[in-house]
């Protein structure tokens, strides 16, 4: 595989994230950076992207600051399989914690309305 | 027939932009006050929306990314978010107006109080969003909306002095007794209506719904260059009818029944019935377009799964968003506001949404990461840059003109 230089701001932030089936999961709201030893990032030292962050961290990207670590919703960077105009994962959305609002609304609202499971592309 | 059905997306998109309920009224007001002297603005608007809708459709076909995904990606959370708020407000206000418009049109046909029709209309819109396949929806609503061609028939039956009409179109001037500020207010309003951002949201997302690929670029062009000129033509025909019948008598348009008056005069009850069905279909189509756009914009900004091609359970947040938008629309209508007056406020939001929508489209249409060899040509880029300038001027001029003229009155 050829190496390619990626600008995290330009090529990662705000990109669409798709799961292994091509289903949309979230957008890249922010990134979690870690130092080489897994500790905090130190200026001037090498760092790596540990996770894609989603959820409430969007608010702090707009307004500034950052939420407490306990509120971070992570997708581990190891789940990323390909970077193109979108970020592709090699796991299913249903296995990810960040997908909980979709699952909650599906189970508690949409599925309970008649026709919620209806396949619009199928016959009748 | 298959060719005709293949362009339904373009036609439905254009109907929502050019002849939704707010535009029906605006067009008739323009005709009744300014005759044919603003037709040039519609022409300028048609070219502009063709240009950018073609780009947005091409980006969606080649890269699979709908317009609000690229807005979010290029503008980031802040500017993208500002566009989201403005665009969502436009969608919601227009949706409100359309639900009210369906009710007004049904009131015209049935004399049942409009406020009783409003929840019925909203429920009907929701049922289509919930249940009906995208292609059936666009074909039925798009083709029925074409019945508005009855306005063009009426214009020919009325038989104005065509050489006079041609002179008014080619040598536009502010009519006597009208203030230039009012003329320019309506010019900006017509241009803004032609370029309404939800058209590209709906068109590009529709391209994804229909699973267009790089092979669909011919279909993209066909949709764009059939749909929007047709929308412009309908808009001119409505203004023309008002110019021929209402202008000489100095009748000011304020209700839907005055808009169809020239049709009844020219073609009798039959043509009137055709046009009323067309109005119901067009407002219904615009309601679907704006309701879907509210779901598309929010879902694409936040990266949710969206689309009518998925089971509702597979796009839960998308469907819940549209339900909430419809409920909000009915709630606004229940306060007895004038549905048509509601759309006037969208001018304010357009000032933010127009530039922030069309700039990212132009940028991404030039990005080989997304487009490969299908990037913009020189003509598209030159025209696109010129139109960005026009959009900026119109967006900046809109609010001062609105205040100075008291929204054109």
TrEMBL record, chain A:
<protein>
    <recommendedName>
        <fullName>PRC-barrel domain containing protein</fullName>
    </recommendedName>
</protein>
UniProtKB/TrEMBL annotation, chain B:
<dbReference type="GO" id="GO:0034755">
    <property type="term" value="P:iron ion transmembrane transport"/>
</dbReference>
<dbReference type="GO" id="GO:0005384">
    <property type="term" value="F:manganese ion transmembrane transporter activity"/>
</dbReference>
<feature type="transmembrane region" description="Helical">
    <location>
        <begin position="347"/>
        <end position="365"/>
    </location>
</feature>
<feature type="transmembrane region" description="Helical">
    <location>
        <begin position="183"/>
        <end position="203"/>
    </location>
</feature>
<dbReference type="GO" id="GO:0015086">
    <property type="term" value="F:cadmium ion transmembrane transporter activity"/>
</dbReference>
<feature type="transmembrane region" description="Helical">
    <location>
        <begin position="84"/>
        <end position="110"/>
    </location>
</feature>
<keyword id="KW-0813">Transport</keyword>
<feature type="transmembrane region" description="Helical">
    <location>
        <begin position="32"/>
        <end position="53"/>
    </location>
</feature>
<keyword id="KW-0812">Transmembrane</keyword>
<feature type="transmembrane region" description="Helical">
    <location>
        <begin position="116"/>
        <end position="132"/>
    </location>
</feature>
<keyword id="KW-1133">Transmembrane helix</keyword>
<feature type="transmembrane region" description="Helical">
    <location>
        <begin position="224"/>
        <end position="247"/>
    </location>
</feature>
<feature type="transmembrane region" description="Helical">
    <location>
        <begin position="386"/>
        <end position="407"/>
    </location>
</feature>
<dbReference type="Pfam" id="PF01566">
    <property type="entry name" value="Nramp"/>
</dbReference>
<dbReference type="GO" id="GO:0005886">
    <property type="term" value="C:plasma membrane"/>
</dbReference>
<dbReference type="InterPro" id="IPR001046">
    <property type="entry name" value="NRAMP_fam"/>
</dbReference>
<feature type="transmembrane region" description="Helical">
    <location>
        <begin position="267"/>
        <end position="288"/>
    </location>
</feature>
<feature type="transmembrane region" description="Helical">
    <location>
        <begin position="318"/>
        <end position="335"/>
    </location>
</feature>
<feature type="transmembrane region" description="Helical">
    <location>
        <begin position="139"/>
        <end position="158"/>
    </location>
</feature>
<protein>
    <submittedName>
        <fullName>Divalent metal cation transporter</fullName>
    </submittedName>
</protein>
<keyword id="KW-0472">Membrane</keyword>
């Amino acid at each position: 595989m050829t190496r390619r230089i990626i600008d995290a701001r330009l090529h990662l932030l705000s990109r669409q994230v798709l799961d292994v089936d091509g289903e949309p999961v979230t957008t890249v709201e922010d990134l979690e950076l870690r130092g080489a030893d897994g500790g905090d990032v130190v200026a001037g030292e090498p760092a790596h992207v540990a996770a894609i962050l989603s959820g409430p961290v969007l608010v702090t990207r707009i307004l500034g600051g950052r939420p407490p670590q306990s509120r971070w919703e992570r997708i581990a960077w190891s789940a990323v399989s390909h970077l193109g105009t979108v970020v592709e994962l090699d796991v299913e959305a249903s296995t990810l914690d960040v997908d909980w609002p979709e699952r909650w609304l599906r189970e508690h609202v949409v599925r309970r309305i008649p026709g919620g499971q209806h396949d619009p592309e199928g016959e009748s | 027939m298959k060719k005709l059905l293949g362009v339904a997306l373009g036609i439905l998109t254009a109907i929502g932009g050019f002849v939704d309920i707010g535009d029906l009224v605006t067009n008739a007001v323009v005709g009744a006050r300014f005759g044919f002297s603003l037709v040039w603005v519609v022409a300028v608007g048609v070219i502009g929306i063709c240009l950018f809708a073609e780009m947005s459709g091409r980006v969606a076909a080649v890269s699979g990314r709908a317009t609000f995904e690229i807005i979010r990606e290029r503008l980031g959370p802040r500017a993208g978010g500002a566009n989201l708020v403005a665009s969502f407000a436009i969608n919601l206000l227009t949706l409100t107006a359309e639900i009210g418009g369906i009710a007004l049109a049904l009131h015209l046909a049935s004399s049942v109080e409009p406020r009783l029709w409003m929840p019925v209309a909203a429920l009907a819109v929701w049922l289509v969003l919930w249940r009906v396949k995208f292609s059936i929806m666009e074909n039925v609503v798009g083709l029925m909306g074409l019945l508005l061609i009855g306005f063009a028939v009426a214009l020919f039956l009325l038989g104005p002095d065509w050489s006079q009409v041609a002179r008014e179109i080619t040598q536009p001037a502010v009519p006597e007794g009208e203030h230039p500020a009012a003329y320019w207010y309506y010019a900006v309003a017509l241009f803004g209506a032609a370029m309404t951002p939800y058209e590209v949201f709906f068109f590009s997302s529709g391209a994804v719904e229909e699973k267009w690929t790089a092979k669909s670029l011919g279909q993209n062009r066909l949709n764009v260059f059939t749909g929007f000129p047709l929308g412009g033509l309908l808009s001119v025909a409505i203004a023309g009818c008002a110019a021929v019948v209402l202008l000489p008598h100095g009748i000011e348009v304020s209700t839907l029944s005055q808009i169809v008056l020239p049709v009844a005069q020219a073609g009798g009850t039959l043509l009137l019935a055709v046009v009323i069905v067309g109005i119901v279909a067009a407002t219904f189509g615009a309601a679907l377009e704006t309701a879907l756009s509210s779901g598309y914009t929010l879902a694409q900004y936040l990266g949710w799964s969206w689309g009518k091609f998925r089971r509702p359970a597979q796009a839960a947040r998308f469907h819940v968003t549209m339900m909430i938008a419809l409920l909000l629309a009915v709630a606004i209508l229940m306060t007895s506001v004038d549905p048509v007056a509601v759309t006037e406020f969208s001018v304010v939001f357009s000032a933010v949404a127009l530039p922030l929508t069309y700039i990212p489209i132009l940028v991404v249409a030039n990005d080989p990461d997304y487009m490969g060899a299908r990037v913009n040509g020189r003509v598209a880029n030159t025209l696109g840059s010129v139109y960005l300038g026009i959009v900026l001027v119109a967006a900046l001029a809109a609010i001062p003109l609105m205040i100075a003229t008291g929204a054109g009155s």
